[in-house]
Specification:
Elements: E1 2-3, E2 26-27, E3 30-31, E4 33-40, E5 43-49, E6 59-67, E7 72-81, E8 89-93, E9 99-102, H1 108-118, E10 146-148, E11 156-157, H2 159-165, E12 174-177, E13 182-184, H3 187-190, E14 193-195, E15 207-208, E16 215-219, E17 222-231, H4 239-245, E18 248-250, E19 258-261, H5 262-274, H6 279-290, H7 303-321, E20 370-377, E21 382-383, H8 404-413, H9 428-431, E22 441-443, E23 445-451, E24 457-465, H10 471-482, E25 489-494, H11 497-500, H12 504-508, E26 523-527, H13 536-541, H14 552-572, H15 574-603, H16 608-623, H17 640-657, H18 669-693, H19 699-726, H20 730-735, H21 739-743, H22 764-802, H23 806-844, H24 895-949, H25 956-988
Parallel strand pairs: 14-17, 16-19, 20-25, 25-26
Antiparallel strand pairs: 1-9, 2-3, 4-5, 6-7, 7-8, 7-9, 10-11, 10-12, 12-13, 15-17, 16-17, 18-19, 20-23, 21-22, 23-24
Length: about 1000
Amino acid sequence: MHCDESTTPSSSGQNASLLHFDDSDRVAGRPVTDVKFKSFKGFKIHQRQGVPTTALGSVGRHTKISSDDTGKLHLTKKLYKAPNAKRRTLLTQVTSPTRSFIFDPFNLPECVDNLPDTVDLGILNHVARERTATTCTICKSRPARYWCHNCLTLDLYCKECLLSSHASQPLHNVKEWQGSYWARTSLKEVGLVIQLSHPSGMPCVLPKTPYGDDFVIIDGNGIHSVTLRLCGCETAETSPQQLLRFRLFPASTDKPCTAATFSVLEEYHLLALESKVSAHHFYNSLVRRSDNTGLSNNDKDRYEQFMRIAREWRHLKTLKRAGRGHDVRGAAGTKEGECAILCPACPQPGKNLPDNWDKTPKEKEWLYGLFVAIDANFRLKRRAVSKDAVDPSLSGGWSYFVEEQRYKQYLSEHSNTRQEQSTCASHNAVNAADTKVSKGLSATGVGSICCAQHEMKLPGGVGDLQKGERYVNMDYLFFSVLKDTPLKCLNISYDIMCQWSRHLWSRMETMPTSMHFRYEDRKINLFIPKFHLPAHIAKCQWKFSFNFEMGPGHRRDTLDDLIGDSNWKKFIRFGESLLSKLKEAVPERNEHQEDLREFESSLAQQYKEQLAKWKEDVEAWEADMSKPNPFEVRSHFISQASVRLSLAQCDALRIAESSEPPIHPDVSPSVLISTGIDLEDQQRRLRFDMEKLGPHASDHQKRKIVERSNTLIRRMEAWAGIQMLYIPRVASLRSKMVDSDCNNSHLFELWLPSALPILTPCDAGLLEIEWPLRMGQAHDALEELRQALHTCSYMLRFKDRFLRGQGANTRARNSLKIVDAKVDSSAVKYHTAHAALMALSKRLGKTGWDKNLQVLEKDDIRPMTAGTDDRASEGRRRLSWIWLVRGYNEDTTGDNEEQEVQDAIRVEWCKARARAHRWTEEVVLLVEEQRRVLEFLRWQESWWLIKEAEVDTSDLSLKEGLSAYALRQAALKHDLRIHFTRMWQDTQRWDDLQ
């Protein structure tokens, strides 16, 4: 971009290709600041925004950008005054003239057109080997067999010259010529020995071998296995000292066998600070730089050692920058907060304040006031996966976090202190401070104290939170920061200041006396910020960085690269991914096939002919899906919900046809009975929960039970009042109840029609209404029971197959207890419905229903494939009757009832067959995918060999480079194919794969 003659660049010395404003761009005598980037038609414009001023009142900016046919970009900047939100009135215009700019964009199409013809693709990987350089570049006599990947030159070396030239570069990556392409090797394999504590090339008379003689060095260009020798001379230093003088940071001070270079630690430290890269991702990038194919052995994993080194490095750099190495007290004598970086712009007595600052007149005390902001960040959670005894801090309160032991001791002593409720608006930070979810978390976030002007954290002003922003936490952090300050003016900002400050000084009395400070003779101003910034830490980290928006081409190129990398990682992981899937599929297939065989054997005696017919039907449907679907239930089943719908529809019809007023305007007979059954169900669940409560229940658990009981008793009393309108004789029955029974919800007798004594008169219509409702309830209970048994059976199989260890099995048993409770609850629900049906059938003369809904015995409650006797043969095992019942049809009798049973069994068999077939197909497909991968790699290997044979150019260097790259790719595909074949060779011999 070029500025024309009408534009005068500023004298700030910035690059003229940026959009500048000169000294005339000032607002009320103050220069414009806050540089930001904006995009205009693919170009980036450096635009500066004016600072808001109070001298001009409510002043805004308007920047107009336009372009013409010549390619000029015109920019006009104006100031306007906005007295209200409806209109803008021109106040003034910047005196600098309108500026024009001409952009010379990068000619991308020209580059794209010429790139394939002008770029030597052979040099991209530096794989060319000059035919004239068959001898060593240095000695000019021996054959050249080696090339250094990290040296800037393309010199080729013999073995002797390679070792001599790399004595001071022992971590370079070298390659060896294999006759037609370069193959990876290492200086260790060539014979290089790293000797510490002696000048380069000078041998040691007493060299010492490190522990294990397998030293690994982590560097920015990869992870290297090296031959290293320590000095064993009489004046030799310790092993860690020798390594450190060689700029290697050891992972251990006892018997080091791993070290990281200073350069890689500096690189990781900066990346972790600037781009938030994790140690895991950074280390994996080094692994991939060493070998991006996954072919090398993974026995040099030093991730844990790197984590330890990086943590120590960070700690030592902090101590170094804090001058602890220059203090006679050393690191052990470091005081709390001494390693923190202080804000140079805030008042620091003895550091940046004038003499006699404490004698400043009161009207100017604000000049030396400290602005403090209090806030919390709930994104910085920490899971409860470790503890301080296992993972202690290297600097206990030396920087920004408070000293942990005293902090936790104070919190423990005041753990029962209740948070004061807000008298202002309903602030969640106040009212929900004690209720924030903290299950599984050691810290729900952090509270912090920083200087409000510059957002720098203050020493000792950060601490973990266990719940929300509790006063007990924030008070400790606040007084920890200000306990020693001699400043007389404090300006404190907090988003809940109106609540937090109410009893601040009385709460200070509960603090240790060392944290008290005199507030009576200080000027303390309390504020609520106009905008609450919840992410102070993130803002600090990004304060000095510029953020750029990618152009469309750049963005696409970047995404292409990312997607390509993702595909490549999946490509080289096909070996382990397909193997993992196959290891899962084969047992699943075997298990579901066995379940199907058990199911069919249990059906063989009673439903042998039907089973053969079902197989024909399902195979015919699989061949032609226009035929009847065997998975569909063909009988008409109804549940309790459908019964209620039918009764409600009957009520609506009766209301439309009847002219007599109802007994109750809001509660019909069907609503009365259905509500009574609901209350009975709630009563049963409450009784069940009370039995589980146990003798050592907490007050919280007891309170919840009592509240549920109180709510239920009020509902039942209201329902009983309406019940007496329909069944008047219930009043005499209820009068005989003991007062304690009437007041206890779990003992309250509802006296539904089915529970009335046989001699107590009751409207036959009510009995007819309860009958289908109880039928629906019984079938709902059986369905819930079957689902719970399915879940229990699956969890038991999962536990036996996959879970090992006391912790995992304990958690599994706890989950099984919940499912077992569901089984028991469903069984009790069925017993209640069955007992009601027995009583109703005597009054209504119903018969035959108990052939379908039998008495539920304990032995009947079992999974589908389990028999009543474990010693019974496969052919003698029979399904429990609960698996043969599906729904209820009022018209079901005789042959229709048997047909419904067969319908239910057919659907279950079809599902079991489908599961077994799908897992069988999965195994077959995975075996086929393995074959396809190997065949594809074989094809790619051949494809690269063909490409190498098709190289045709007169440039020998280019020809050799292209040829070598093709051969290397072919060799890589060959190695991957062999690698995958070896990984899968055991699975291919599995007898049960076919």
